[in-house]
Design brief:
This protein has about 260 residues and is mostly beta strands. Helices cover about 0% and strands about 60% of the residues. An 8-stranded antiparallel β-sheet has the order 4-3-7-8-16-15-11-12, with no helix packed on it. A 4-stranded antiparallel β-sheet has the order 1-2-6-5, with no helix packed on it.
């Protein structure tokens, strides 16, 4: 099963004519998985299929979808700003195109151009100071700059002295970081980041889990006072990959005397 992702345009909407201009076809192409729901709008009104209006969506190759809006027996009342919106559970994207029958010197509705937010790197977790501080990092392609919102278990994450969100711009890419200081088990949960601009919205999730019981340390409880030290963690468990990426290593540090028995 391949990776799922939010819709993004591989070809923005274009307009072509058939039947000497009596038929107009808006064409565009999207990549998305799973298949997106498609909606067309003229202005703020959703375009519905009828005897002379057809909406076609066809998967032309894996995760690539051809989308068409066909207007037959075209009328002057069909003029306006058309917008196509594609949405699945991972995000949504939209693009617009203007259909104008008026003289060129008349003002036209604004056609929105740019790039809907798309994740070039999904969120990853990085630990600092032995897991005392945690950073969620991701990278997004977007134009204009997207509004960023983080959620934990469905609730909006509010910035505070120990919780900070930073956005760094690199041309049309944005490096997003959610930093948590002095992490506790109460910070565990499912985190979601939403990036949104005028052209669309995309989101991604990552889970932060703690299991205080996944490791036990046992020592000699009968050790006489002064001759022993109860097992105590000086560094909480952290996860890292081997240099070749073939294995995952859990490591931590503890003090104890006599040598404690370790159970994972």
């Amino acid at each position: 099963m391949g990776e799922n992702f939010a819709p993004s345009f591989t070809q923005k909407p274009k307009l072509r004519q058939e039947d000497d201009g009596n038929k107009l076809i808006f064409d565009c192409q999207l990549s998305a998985s799973p298949k997106p729901e498609i909606e067309w709008y003229r202005g703020d009104v959703q375009v519905k299929e009828s005897q002379r209006i057809k909406i076609n969506v066809k998967e032309c190759s894996k995760n690539i979808h051809d989308v068409q809006l066909i207007l037959d027996d075209v009328e002057e009342e069909d003029a306006g700003l058309y917008k196509v919106k594609a949405k699945n559970k991972y995000g949504e994207v939209s693009a617009s195109i203007n259909l104008n029958f008026s003289p060129v010197d008349e003002p036209q509705e604004r056609q929105i151009d740019g790039i809907a937010p798309t994740f070039s790197q999904k969120p990853v977790i990085k630990q600092e100071e032995g897991g005392k501080h945690i950073k969620f990092e991701c990278r997004i392609l977007a134009e204009p700059k997207p509004a960023i919102t983080w959620y934990r278990d469905g609730l909006k994450v509010q910035e505070s002295a120990r919780c900070k969100v930073s956005i760094e711009k690199d041309e049309k890419y944005f490096f997003i970081t959610l930093s948590l200081a002095n992490v506790t088990v109460q910070d565990a949960g499912k985190y979601k980041i939403t990036a949104k601009n005028e052209l669309g919205e995309s989101n991604a999730t990552i889970s932060l889990n703690f299991d205080s019981s996944f490791m036990m340390l046992t020592g000699d409880e009968e050790a006489p006072a002064g001759d022993g030290v109860k097992p105590t963690f000086t560094e909480r468990p952290v996860i890292r990959q081997s240099e070749d990426g073939s294995s995952v290593i859990f490591s931590c540090r503890c003090v104890g005397s006599p040598k404690p028995t370790v159970i994972w």
